[in-house]
Amino acid sequence: MNRLSHPSPCRQPRRRQDGFTLVELMISVAVSFALLLAMISFLVNASQTNRELAKANSQVESGRFAIQALQNDILQAGYWGNFMPQFDDLTLSSVPTDVPAAVPDPCLAYDAANWTSAYKTNLVGIPLQVYDAVPGSCGSVVTSRKANTDVLVVRHAHTCVPGETNCEASVSGKLYFQASGCESEISAGQRWVLDTTGFTLKQRGCTGTPPTTTGALAPVRKFVSNLYYIRDYANSAGDGIPTLVRSEFDLASGTLAHQTAQPLVEGIEGFKLELGIDNVSDAGLPVDFTQAINWSDTTTKTSPTNRGDGAPDGSFIRCTGTCTAAQLMNTVAVKLHLLVRSSEATHGYTDTKTYTLAGTTFGPYNDGFKRHVFTTTVRLMNVAGRRETP
What pLDDT, on the 0 to 100 scale, is given for residue 12? Predict the structure, then answer.
């Protein structure tokens, strides 16, 4: 008997498998290419955004650092240890004898002939000077200055005493300041010394006229004079990077003078200053140093009618040319205005804006750099604080 044979299930005919058609392949390639382009575009945009954020952060950091550096120095202006000028001494009952008679030459190199007693008195009595051009004597110090920017000079004694931790050791030939703390020396007119030698003033323990040689010596502090301006290059002439620079008064090659300026902060393009002048007493009368203090209340000694009160009177001012000695010795606050540009140009950006700093217009620059204005007001604590009364 014949049996019918049935095909085994494992021997079913195979279906033919087809690959991608050319059209399907082209579509998949096109889609993949579009996705790739989108990813590349995203990465490029993200990279550009990060780069712009980095430039913006750097710009803000430069502005803040420049403001802080200037502010920290201005806060020290007029610090002379325990010495106080007579014209700011509210305990003085006579006419002050140390009122500055003239604006001192800010870049005069030290020598005994030119650094007279009167010149030193002017230096100590005027701790801050501002110029809207290069001072005549500073031509070899203020070089490559950027047009329409100011020059600032700040003077004071160093806040630390040589030999203290983190303080420069005493160096022979450098300029130092010493203020007496001995009443008999002060009465004899030996109130302070600004020189390279001769520091014999006492802190205490001296008696008689002239004072005896006993007693501890008063602290001797380094004389500080810093000159700030904007240079049109950073490290090498022609690099085109506007930079805040500082020239320090120091000893080099046997000469005491303002040294070659060193770069502080790059990208500072504009620098303007305004002064707050304390020339009216809290009684509303003009400041007058040709007379002894005239107290509104002689019993309690409050509110001197012919002395300042430590606060700026009226609007902040800008001096035309050179400020007067009266303006500078009565400066109790400074407004700082800085124009800071980015470190690199931005592709596709053009700066068509103008910037006003203390009445002076900068721009339009019509370049690819982004800019920002920084402004702050700094109080001269050592000058203003001495004039405050109840």
Answer: 58
